[in-house]
Task: structure prediction
Amino acid sequence: MADLLASVEEKRRVFLEELKTAEEKASSPTGLPPVDVRALHVRWLGQKQGVVTELLAGLRTLSKEDKAPAGAAINRLKNDVEAALSSLEEKSLLFERLRKQQALAVDVTLPPRAPRVGRLHPLTVVRRRIESAFASLGYEVAEGPEVESDWLNFEALNFPPDHPARDAVDTFFVKGGGEGKDRLLLRTHTSPVQIRTMLAQKPPIRIVIPGRVYRKDDIDPRHSPVFHQMEGLTVDEGVTFANLKGTLAAFSRLLFTPETKIRFGPTFFPFVEPGVDVAVSCVFCSGTGAADGATCRPCSGSGWIEIMGAGMVHPNVLRNGGIDPEKYSGFAFGMGIDRIAFLLYGVPDLRLFFENDVRFLDRVWS
Ligand code: DAH
Result:
């Protein structure tokens, strides 16, 4: 009898150890598989070779008086094992549920994913830089349509009827765009907005005009059928060639570096007289003509890079804009925004601006 009671206590100790191990496993990240709970059940309470069942079988060997207390002890163990295993099963299911929830849960301590921020197109950045340089010199921004009349694009700007730019080979004419004065085309430059502005407002006029322009050019690294220009127009009383030069010199220093110089060369545009080609000291070699001991390629070693056309507004153009050339004078200029972008960023191929490859666009342009 004493042996049996001692054995019951020993089994209880073993059970508690096994229970502890199982509980630890239930709360661990791997969890306690339901088969393990079943195995414990079979091992302790199984009908055939369960530990408790075998203890009960041992009662047979005891005397009548010993049976009652020994039986009570074994039953206590049996009840305790039953209760412990059913609570183990519940706990292990609960932990399983918690693990699943955690897997789905949001970890609020993780750093957030950086949002994908869009960027301005490099040509937009350059346009704004040119605009703000002129804004600081007192200029406003004006715009005009991309489908323009033949009259405003050519005629009013003093183009003679046989000028090569008026050839269908060079210009996109709009089908069904009418005859004579009503003929429509995709503007070949931003200059027609000079006339539009003069017709709409009286001097003093100080405007810059950004916009898309179109020419029948094949695409190559330096040509595109669509590109961008920035036009400028100043009309007032007593505007001189010196004002033109001073304005463009100030602009070039603002846009490039304070050391930038400008150079005028004579040329012809029908809407100005005199007309000039404007060059700036080369931004790649600081005007020295040499870079890394070799001839500077962008300026071909000359130290100068042409950036725009300019001149004093032709009296016929002022007249076509409804302005009296006896009273007023003015100057105008026009540059390629894409070309300025090449000078500011060294982008060697115009096509990069139009292909919209994000690997190119994603860079920081400033
Ligand atoms: N419109 C000319 C072009 O597209 C550029 C230009 C030259 C504009 C001289 C002007 C100017 O206003 O005065 O080539």
